[in-house]
Amino acid sequence: MIQVENLVKRYRRAERNAVDGIGFEVRAGEFFALLGPNGAGKTTTISILTTTLTPTAGTATIDGLDIVRHASEVRRRVGIIFQRPSLDRNLTGEENVRFHAVLYGVYPYAPTYRLMPAAYREQVGELAGIVGLGPEIFEPIRTYSGGMSRKLEIVRSLIHRPRVLFLDEPTSGLDSPSRRGLWAYLERVRRESNTTILLTTHYLEEAEQADRICIIDRGRVVSYGTPSEIKADLVEDYVLVDTRDRVELRAELGRLGLPYSGDGPFRVELDGRSTHAVLKAIDTPLSLVQTHTPSLEDAYLGIVGRAAEDEAGDAPIGEPTDA
Question: Quick one: DSSP state of residue 285?
Fold first, then answer.
């Protein structure tokens, strides 16, 4: 559904590329997460894929359509929730949604909500309920809080049932019930309509549910794979043990050939062994046993930290903030 090859973007007067030769693919119906620190190039990448920016070099296709040569057709197949609000503040919330639906050719235009087709009114009501918008959807946008504006953008982006949905920090500003409701709905849409989802987020627990993850830093791909593969890229399982007789435990770990570090507590690397097998092999009475299974956050911080050590430097001039 999405194919990216050697994509490059350099802004005018920039000292380095904002996006520097990245490549990845996203299958139809897949939930794909694009992660990286501020200034990594996430927003630039999404802006290129949604045709709001032109790449400096490289190619990308959406549903087999080149994003440069077939930009209009690409836009009809995608839905976008950007970081920054893009609502018309002179209109009501519902009017913003209605004009979006009409522009995409989903419904014929009517001058009022009541004159719109019943299917439109039902869909708006369903989406508004999912994100927690009530009667305020008929109020002017200028009266909205930041969180309400975000909810309305979600409704608007889903009204034309896109083939690919780009979510750039979609739950930023949402409360926990609204976040849960949104993700439950998105999972249902993906399951029923085979909608492809590409997400950028700072909530790493959201990315844990992704089919595959691409981590970029300074415009380059630094890790790519399933959540399990990403974790295995850097972070290992281990068990933390301690005892009153540390001299004996240290000697026993050596005799057993169990790799460990520390002077107590001792971090024992599992290296493919089960925690049960390691503990069963140790005869020294233990006063502490703590197992550690790496989280995506552990892996993410480690991978980004490693990339920063490999290449010192600042974010490119002109790069939009991935806040």
Answer: P
Enter the tokens of residue 155. Answer: 């409704």
* Whether the predicted pLDDT of 191 surpasses 70: yes
Measured distance CA(165)–CA(182) in Å, rounded: 13
Residues 6+ apart with CB under 8 A from 122: none
Q: 250 by DSSP, 3-state: which? A: helix
Angle at 218 between CA 71 and CA 59, to 5 degrees: 25
Of the candidates 49, 75, 91, 100, the residue with the CA atom closest to the CA atom of residue 163:
75
Residues forming a β-bridge with 35: 215
Q: What are the residue ranges spanned by the domains of the chain? A: 2-230, 236-292
Q: Which of 34-63 are b and which e, b meaning 16 or more Cβ less than 10 Å from the residue's Cβ?
A: bbbbebbbbbbbbbbbbbebebeebebbbb
> Partners of 33 in the beta sheet?
199, 213
CA–CA dist 22, 214 (Å, integer): 10
Length of the chain: 323
* Least trusted range by pLDDT, from 11-20, 64-73, 278-287, 291-300: 291-300
> CB count, 10 Å around CB of 88?
12
Backbone angles phi, psi at 205, to 5 degrees: -65, -25
| Domain 2-230 falls under CATH 3.60.40.10 | no
Q: How far is CA 318 from CA 10, 21, 39, 75, 150, in A?
A: 9, 18, 10, 25, 25
- Identity of the amino acid at 97: V
| 78-81 and 164-168 strand pairing | parallel
| pTM of the shown model | 0.75
